[in-house]
Every structure is written in structure tokens, then in C-alpha cells.
Amino acid sequence: MSPSRARTSTALALFLATTACTAAEHEPPRAPHSLPVSRQARQLRLPLDAYASTEAETYLVEDAEDILMRRCMNGLGMEWKALPPVAAQDTEPPNLRRYGADQVESVHYGYHPHPDPPSVVRRSRAWDEREALPAEVQRAAYGPSGTGGCLKTADHQLVGDTALPSHRAFNELTGKALEASRRTPEVRDALRRWHTCMAKAGYDYPDPYAAAGNKRWKTAEPTPAERATARADVTCQKSAKLVTVWAAAETRVQQRLIQQNTDRLHEAKARKDRWLAAARRVLRREGRTSHPSPAP
Exposed e or buried b for every residue in 38-71, given b needs 16+ CB within 10 A? Predict the structure, then answer.
């Protein structure tokens, strides 16, 4: 894999979450330093998720690569500082904000993104340090192209000639599924209920994405108006059962798309599974555990 920072991309990641204080009252206490994310977001899974890499899986493969790269670099007489691990509770769920705001995240940040949690900050700083390494060390690690050197050696030791996992089919189909499910009668009804609820609260947005994407929220910190809108938004999502209805509709759409694209998706998943299995073997030999999914 390329020497880039792990970032998970959902279909609508630009739309940041929001919540109402009343909606968060029934959430269980979060683990210390965990992301401010609702149990609903942690538990939301869609059929196509199996064909893409989660943020935790990306970190897992990076960690295994890093172990093998360190051996290669040490063999060249060069030091290679390991990347600090990312805590399981600090990884984002794959479908966070897929249908709009999250009930817990935005109680703290409105429609603004949450700050990176501590272990993610530490890893980002480690990447910054690597980018500042002397040119000779970077060439040894990554080669002139950025995909050679000890990285290429590590990847070959990890999976041989297996190509990198491709997410092209996933990216195409997950976007189609979202739009198709949005047009189903049950989701359109839920969106109408959401819109009616918001109108009664004094807001005029066609859907949660429009509420989250208002240009007025492009400020350094959440404003009182943004927080008030976010509270109404999440309250209306809950009363309209929007996330529950939409997820059920999209699940049906995704299942149909998977049946229609079996060959493309099977190949992508086979590659992904081979990379993950190889990475887990390397980590086990080092006495390290893989990144488990956070408890819902």
C-alpha cells in the first residue's frame, strides 16, 4: 500500500454530524477518549461494507507493512521508527453520517468535524516526521516513485504478487445504492416527515444533507444558530425514523446490486481478504493483536 495516511471515505463524508442533547440522553457512557459517535452509527452495517476496507483494516495492513519495512530498513543499516498504533475506539464506523447527522457526535461539535482523537493525532504526527526524513532515507523506504524501496519489498513479503485491493466497484455501487434508496417510497415518506418536523421548528431544508451543508456553518467553531439547527435536525431524524427506514431500504438495494455484480465484487473481496489475512499473520508473529472493532 502507498505510504499515505489512512483515511476512510464514506459516500457522503463531507456532511458532518449533529445531534440534540435530548437524543443523547439515552446513549450509554462512552469509553475514555473514544470518538463521540452514537451506538446507532457503530452498529450500522450495509451489505456492500464487506467489499471495502474499513479505517481499522487500513491501519492493520499499515502496521504489518511497517513491521516488514523496519526489517528491510534495518538490513540497510537505517533506523525505522514504528508507527504508533491507533486505538480501536478511535476508528470511525464505516457508515458514519451516511444519512446525515449523528446523534452523539454533533452534540459536541454541531455540524463541524470532531477533532482527531489522541491515538490518531499521534499517528498523524509520525507520518509528518516521516515526510521530513532525509532524502536518502525516503528513497530507501519508498524508492523514487513512492511505491518502491522497502515498501515494495514489504508488500511482496506480505502478499506476493497480489494486487492492491480495488474499491472501484464498491465506490460505484455504494453511490448508486444511496441514490436509488433515496428514491424509494418509504425513504421519500421519511424525508417528508423530517421536512415537516423541521418546518414546525422554523427551518426550511429539503433534507439533512442540506441542513449540514449550509454555508453559514463554515466558521472556526460551531455558532449558536448551528447548534440550534443541529438539535432540531437530529430530533426530527429520530421522530421520522429516518435512519432506520433509509438503512433498511438501502440494504435491499445493495443486496440486489451485489447479485448483479458478483464477479467484480468477488475479485475485490478476495484481494482484500488476502491482504488482511497476511497482515494478521505478521502481527501475530510479532505478538501484536489486530485492530478489533469497537464495542457497539
Answer: bebbbebebbbbebbbbbbbbbbbbbbbbbbbbe
Nearby residues of 253 by Cβ (< 8 Å), 6 or more positions away: 176, 177, 180, 181, 184
Query: What whole-number distance in Å separates Cα of residue 60 and Cα of residue 280?
Result: 8
Question: Which of 67, 85, 97 minimizes the C-alpha distance to 6?
Answer: 85
- pLDDT of 2-29, one tens digit each? 344 443 333 333 232 322 333 333 333 3
pLDDT tier at 296, thresholds 50, 70, 90: low
Distance CA 246, CA 178 (A): 9
3-state helix vs strand vs coil in the chain, percent to 5: 60, 0, 40
Q: What is the rounded distance in angstroms from the CA atom of residue 234 to the CA atom of residue 18?
A: 6
Locate cell 465484487: which residue? Answer: 265
- Quick one: which of 57, 65, 60, 62 has its CA closest to 8? 57
- The pLDDT assigned to 11 comes to 31
Residue-wise pLDDT for 219-261, tens only, equals: 999 999 999 999 899 999 999 999 999 999 999 999 999 999 9
Residue 218: Cβ within 10 Å count: 9
Q: How far apart are CA 206 and CA 254, in angstroms?
A: 24
Rounded (5°) CA angle 274-95-246? 125
CA angle 276/81/52 to nearest 5° reads 20
Task: Kindly report whether the global pTM for this prediction surpasses the value 0.70.
Answer: yes
d(CA 78, CA 136): 10
